[in-house]
Amino acid sequence: MGLAVLALVALTLVPAAADYRAYFAVAALVAAGVLLVTIVIGPGKRPELAVTRPELAVAGAATVSGTAAPVGVNPADAAVVSFLATLQEKGRLVDFLMDDIAIYSDGQVGAVARVVQAGCKAVLLEQFQILPIREEKEGSQVTVPAGYRADEYRLVGKLSGQAPFAGTLMHRGWKTESVKLPRVLRTGDDRFPTVAPAEVELQ
Amino acid sequence: MSNRFSFGIDLGTTNSAIAITDLASDRTEVVEVTQILSPNQVGERSTLPSALYIPHPDEFPENSIRLPWQTEVGDAAIIGQFARDHGALVPDRLVTSAKSWLSNIHIDARQKSLPWNSDINEEKLSAFDCSRRYLEHLKEGFLYAERRKGREWNLSDGVIVLAVPASFDEVARNLTAEAADAAGLGKVTLLEEPQSAFYAWISQAAKEWRTQVGPGDIVLVCDVGGGTADFSLIAVSEHEGTLQLERISVGEHILLGGDNMDLALAYTLKAQLEAQGKSIDSWQLLALVHAAATSKIALFNDESLTEVPIAVPSRGSSLFAGAVSTSLERATLERVVLDGFFPMTGAADFPREARNVGLREFGLPYASDPAVSKHLARFLVRSLANVKASESLTRLVGARAAAETFLSPTAILFNGGVFNAAPIRARVRDLLASWTQGPVRELEGAQQDLAVAKGAALYGRNRATGKGIRIKAGTARSYYVGLETSMPAVPGFKPPVKALCVVPQAMEEGSELLITGREFGLVTGQPADFRFFSSETRSGDTPGQILPDAERELEEPSLLQVNLPSIEGFPEGQPVPVQINSVVTELGTLELWMKHTNSERRWKVEFAIRTE
Asked: If 0-12 CB within 10 Å is exposed, 13-18 middle and 19+ buried, where does residue B365 land?
């Protein structure tokens, strides 16, 4: 899949293909999106992805033949919207962020913060395994070992020489080691999943 | 036949779960169930809420509620988490507690009457249909999950064990087995849920278990789930140096569980809010039930907390405007949950009986008394009566059988989510200790959640491999056929119905009996009905024994129907002499047959709903 993305990106650089460049770019994005989903969802859950692949092929074919085909919503984007919908459903996150907070008292905001915190935390714990990068207490002296993973550390202050580095732990960091996102059922749709449906009570 | 795996199913009243033992690796694990989490979202959860939602045809976009194994749209019912959560807002379309309807003697389990009392245009479902669908979902979910892990099973290569409440009578057990067959699971082995929890505990405690129980012990398995409470007693004895286990008593079907506790807390909090001049709508009440459940867990798990703040948001998109807040105090929690459901009542305090209203609307027979303590007291009294009724049980139980009022357990095994809370376990231990004048030890290492599914898989493993201990059990009840007494008619006096014992208690799986003492005459081409009775406290009754008054001493779970076709060699209209032949299959289901006295021909008797 990584190679496919490279190939498509490379094609956009070929002058003869200039007329189709925009379409190839879209196709490359879709491929990258699928790649992302593959990374996010992990290798154990490939059977569902098989469903998204034919659509990719269809989108690619349509662009090559030059017809203006409606390209479905990027599945990776759809997965993100779907996750946002879950945070809204369980933790009212979108309601919380979209409201005008300035007119309410701290007491009211605090009460609502509990709802948002409890709901979103439940979603987070259910769908990710969140772990601290460093177990030590913040403020304590720690050693960043030789061969440390660069993306797991932000080294600030006087940075020189070679690892191991000694310093004060300012933030313990977070990482995730397993992701269990729900799968979006309607892929290849021309709309994103709904973030929160309008609710109408019938009498 | 070589079995490759054992598949355990816990078809719960409120939540279901499944587990597998791979016989090659001898590893047992819970299998997460794929389900609809919201429209357009599918994912895995360790339990499948036993809730079924019948959507309106226009309610959800096409494909947005289709499970990965459903190849075509059509079967629109939704099962699981989303069905439960969404159905709470559209109760007319939601079926819950289908399992309890299965054991409701007043409503035909095959009558399409669910959701109960709702007037939707779509076709309704019967309790049997719902159970079949849950089982179908669990079966497909199992195969799908295993396929995702790269394992392909053929259901016929495994032992399938389905756990049912110990309080289920044979009619409900047979219906469950039949629903499993209709769901494509084939012939399943039935196992009582408390026994299942015990097998899970044995496996969990590993070699330790023999140090925790010994000969003379009577273990109370106390299983309180979301919607039901189920009790059993298991006696431990020794035979030629090895420990033996025997299930000696089972309880009645009690519709009382953790959900009742959360509801009670939510109503208490609602009253608390109203006393502060705040009102909440029905949607907020649902949020409050949810908040009550999580706060209950938080308080019970952390003894340093004195209260947990609770906020209920408004329903509209402006969260802040209508949000109300209060807090759940420890004192309130203890008053409502510990003192309300587990009060320190006496060993002779029985549950309040439901008022006998002449025209009571038939619905689920919810427990009319919320005190689990009183149901437990009644169970232990009935258990003693059951043990005293037979010599062999009296011998097995030993000195404790000589007690006057109730049978006191020496140890307790907790099961069910309610008992994750240490204070509730402590309360039950204190309660028992106050009755028995001595401590009742808690078996250690029990896992409250998912134990029944795992235990079912482990029992299947034991059956398939012949390894591991087996709890001696057999039928939990004795069964009787009603005999109309021939007496001269006396105005205003109804002659008593006598009862012929056709299945003794503890009749073992894979055995059969012929009741020779009594012959019946069946007429070909004419359906014949018999009254059918049961008892869980008459361990001493023997096959062929006749009780003088069935209605006074026994329960009446069903009606028996037998239909003799016109057959060659039997003249029309002339009675065919038959005897009753009872069979308990290897899989634990009861079959009754009418066997021709003079030949090997026999006709099967069907269980039918009793209609008054």
From this structure: middle
Pair B595, B578: CB distance under 8 Å: yes
A187–chain B nearest CA distance, Å = 9
Q: Which residue has the tokens 């061969």?
A: A147
Which DSSP letter does residue B438 get? S
The more confident residue out of B343 and A8 is B343
| Residues B205, A156: Cα–Cα separation, whole Å | 50
Report chain B residues whose CB lies below 8 A from the CB of A75: none
Q: Which of A108, A182, A196 sits opposite B41 (nearest CB)?
A: A182
Cα separation, A104 vs A18, whole angstroms:
55
Cα Rg for chain B, rounded, in angstroms? Answer: 25
Residues of B whose CB is below 8 A from A125: none
Provide DSSP, A64-94.
HTT--PPPPPPHHHHHHHHHHHHHHHHH-HH
CB contact under 8 A, B315 and A182: no
Note whether B91 contacts A: Cβ–Cβ < 8 A.
no
Distance from CA of A110 to the nearest CA of B (A): 9
Give B426-434's long-range contacts (Cβ < 8 A, gap of 24+): B427/B338, B427/B342, B427/B344, B428/B222, B428/B342, B428/B376, B430/B344, B431/B342, B431/B344, B431/B345, B431/B373, B431/B376, B432/B220, B432/B408, B434/B344
User: What is the tens place of the pLDDT at every residue in A47-84?
Assistant: 343 333 333 333 333 333 444 445 677 888 888 999 99
Are B34 and B48 contacting, i.e. CB atoms less than 8 angstroms apart? no
Question: What is the residue type of B459?
Answer: Y
Q: Do B320 and A118 touch (CB under 8 A)?
A: no
Q: What angle do CA B358, B359, B362 make, to 5 degrees?
A: 125
Tell me if B329 sits within 8 A of B268, measured CB to CB: no
What does residue B601 show for φ and ψ, rounded to 5 degrees? -70, 145
Instruction: List for chain A the helix, strand, coil content (%; round to 5).
Output: 55, 10, 35
Supply A19's token pair.
Answer: 């007329």
What is the per-residue pLDDT for B360? 40
For residues B225 and B559, which has the higher predicted lDDT (pLDDT)? B225
For residue B323, give how far its alpha carbon lies from the nearest alpha carbon of chain A (Å): 7
3-state DSSP helix/strand/coil % of chain B, to nearest 5: 30, 30, 40
Alpha carbon distances (Å) from B42 to A186, B34, B68, B216, B407: 10, 7, 8, 50, 49
| Nearest CA distance, A51 vs chain B (angstrom) | 10
Interface test with B, best of A81, A181, A183 (most B CBs within 10 A): A183
Chain B residue numbers touching A47 (CB-CB < 8 A): 68, 147-148
Residues in chain A with CB shorter than 8 Å from the CB of B40 are 82, 184-186, 193-194
| Residue B2 contacts residue B159 (beta carbons within 8 Å) | no
How would you classify residue A92: left for phi > 0, otherwise alpha for psi between -120 and 50, otherwise beta? left
Locate A95 and state its tokens.
């309601």
Comparing CB atoms, the residue among B43, B147, B320 nearest residue A183 is: B43
What's the predicted TM-score (pTM) here?
A: 0.83
pLDDT tens by residue, B571-609: 777 778 888 999 998 888 888 888 888 888 888 888 776
Q: List CB contacts (< 8 A) between B61 and chain A.
A: 186
**CB atoms < 10 A from the CB of B304, how many?**
4
H or E element at residue B450:
none
Work out the minimum CA distance from B501 to partner chain A, whole angstroms: 53
Q: Which residue has the tokens 């309807």?
A: B101
User: Which of A111, A181, A199 is facing B325, going by the closest CB pair?
Assistant: A111
**The predicted structure's pLDDT at residue B264:** 92
- How far apart, in whole angstroms, are the C-alpha atoms of residue B395 and residue B401? 8
Tell me which residue has tokens 């925790």.
B212
For CA atoms B559, B563, B569, B575, the dihedral sign is positive
